[in-house]
Amino acid sequence: MKVRLADNSFINDSIVDGPGIRFTIFFQGCSIGCKGCFNPQTHSFLKGKLYNIEKIKEIIYKNRHLKRGITLSGGNPLEQPQAVVEISRYAHSINLDVWCYTGFKYEQIARKETTLKHIDVLVDGKFVEEKKNLLLKFRGSFNQRLIDVQKSLILKNIIELK
Ligand code: SF4
Question: Which site among 34, 46, 57, 122 is 20 to 30 Å from 66 CA-CA?
Answer without folding.
Answer: 122
